[in-house]
Amino acid sequence: MDEVAAAAGVSRATVSRVINNAPTVEAKIRERVQRAISATGYVVNSAARTLVTRRTGSVALVISEPEQREYDSSFLNRIFTDPFFGRITAGAQSALRPHDVHLVILPTDSSDHHQVVRYLRQGHVDGVLLISSHDEDPLPEQVHALGIPAVMSARPAAAIPASFVHTDQRLGARLAAEHLIRRGCTRLATVSGPLDMPAGQERLDGFRSFLQRRGLADVPCVEGDFTRAGGEDAARRLLAEHPGVDGLFVANDLMAEGAMLVLHDLGRRVPDDVAVIGFDDSSAALACRPPLTTVRQPVEEMAAEMAELLLAHIADPDRLPRSVSFQPTLVIRGSA
Amino acid sequence: MDEVAAAAGVSRATVSRVINNAPTVEAKIRERVQRAISATGYVVNSAARTLVTRRTGSVALVISEPEQREYDSSFLNRIFTDPFFGRITAGAQSALRPHDVHLVILPTDSSDHHQVVRYLRQGHVDGVLLISSHDEDPLPEQVHALGIPAVMSARPAAAIPASFVHTDQRLGARLAAEHLIRRGCTRLATVSGPLDMPAGQERLDGFRSFLQRRGLADVPCVEGDFTRAGGEDAARRLLAEHPGVDGLFVANDLMAEGAMLVLHDLGRRVPDDVAVIGFDDSSAALACRPPLTTVRQPVEEMAAEMAELLLAHIADPDRLPRSVSFQPTLVIRGSA
DNA sequence: CTGAAAGCGCTTACAG
DNA sequence: CTGAAAGCGCTTACAG
């Protein structure tokens, strides 16, 4: 920087001003400095800048899962190949990129929370996007206690004031139930997500309570784990106990893909013998044969909105928390 | 830090020493400082530390693709939901995590290279893991010119000295060809990857040249793009022109999944009518019915090795470049 | 083994 | 509009 200042015949302060586009620099000097910058190939040192501005230009995307049996590459593998998390990452990146803000992705389980908290406290990032899917997860409160700008992926279980985005899961499940009824299915069943996850619980509630109002109580349910293999297992068990099922709601697309595979193995035709509806509208939906009818969540847009909210909180720390809600929609394809 | 020093009755230098586990601190003092740290809740400021140590504790994972029609969320979406890149990320993370090194993922196309280069020059990271899949990609050379520690995902096209990892793609393709022949297939064909990518070209070469030696010349080939939808298209075209095909090698699993879908639509039984072999052994292989026989690349292990190599280069900038090679293996499942 | 001091490379009131 | 100077919060020779 001294070199640039010398080459341009100005002070370091002025060099700094042109780098940061301060309006108070005379055009001629600005140009002279710019030439000196190109000539010397100078670039700012981001650590030095961060030290004084208190801004890093990075945010963390924390993906918090319940404790894993083994925190290893199989956990990381599941996270990084999950189409849902992939869409979140893509949505967040696309919103952040224009602002030149970078994303550090931190998958974590509860055995690992302290590492994440330490990382955040060390000031590596300006804020955090927190994807927490379990009721009992203490991380949202811990992050909130840190006082660092944060946006959550759903209403936090704890009563903390924080911005979050939201989809009406119950409404989504109801859309699925309505469609199955409309199709004339009479023996409905569902593969739910994990019932200790709000997303799992709410989709089941929404599905069941709509059917109950239509006089259909006690719809069979087997709990799955939101993975494809888990969906296969759950569907196999469900179909073994309830072979007559003709309409199946599966709480996410990955499990639905597994369920379709099982139906195929069992020689059941979809949708003629069994109509199937998934949830998410992820890429897995198009990998099914027939293509999967599913409840769409605009995941990319939600993640982008989380990023925008976070940027706003970083720019103005006194900004009041707000939540923004997205509507699920039914995407009708071949499976129901 | 002053606060901690005062509370422990020592200098800041000593506080720094205990934080960094310098061996030359008396046990009693060390303990006193540690208590003061817990009492005050002190954590280091990473920007200040980086400014003096020249270490950030982060590395970049740069995923360089050819120029996109639109650099937007659909590009990011493809990258972040691609099982191959997901495995790379997981493998790199799992190797880096024990060293407390963080990963910032930078998908980029050629319109965007200057941003990546600027980011790297600003010193945000200690090194870069570069996934570059195109022959003409100038990024490996640019990164090398920066003088920042880097490890490549394959032998760089340019003659630059750099560490890289490698799988023998030709051998992998040959494994597929051998297996198809052994099965008794006589009318072979292939869906290749993009032929401007070494991985696409080499798999095709390996497949064809083995067959040629067996007297099978001019095996039909349609070029695909490594996506599932691209695999569907390519398979459809191939089968329209060559309906008699009884053995199909598809250059990655995602395209193979698409090809299997097309075969299903066409009423062809797999493997009885057509045997199908993929490449990668990604999660897509298990989403096929029947499950996909495929050439396994140990992608996670390769990415972990890249990370280890990078860490070694960061620790010792004078270390000589080396390459480490992995063997592909055939994983036999139901499709062939 | 410990401390005083210099220095990492920036930005930003403050004065002019 | 520009510059001299202080200061961001650490680490690390250097001296003792």
UniProtKB/TrEMBL annotation, chains A, B:
Pfam families: LacI (PF00356), Peripla_BP_3 (PF13377). Coiled coil: none annotated. Residues 1-53 form the HTH lacI-type domain. InterPro entries: HTH_LacI, LacI/GalR-like_sensor, Lambda_DNA-bd_dom_sf, Peripla_BP_I. SUPFAM superfamilies: lambda repressor-like DNA-binding domains, Periplasmic binding protein-like I. Keywords: DNA-binding, Transcription, Transcription regulation. The keyword Transcription regulation applies. SMART domains: HTH_LACI (SM00354). Gene3D superfamilies: 3.40.50.2300, lambda repressor-like DNA-binding domains (1.10.260.40). GO terms for molecular function: DNA-binding transcription factor activity; transcription cis-regulatory region binding. This is LacI family transcriptional regulator.
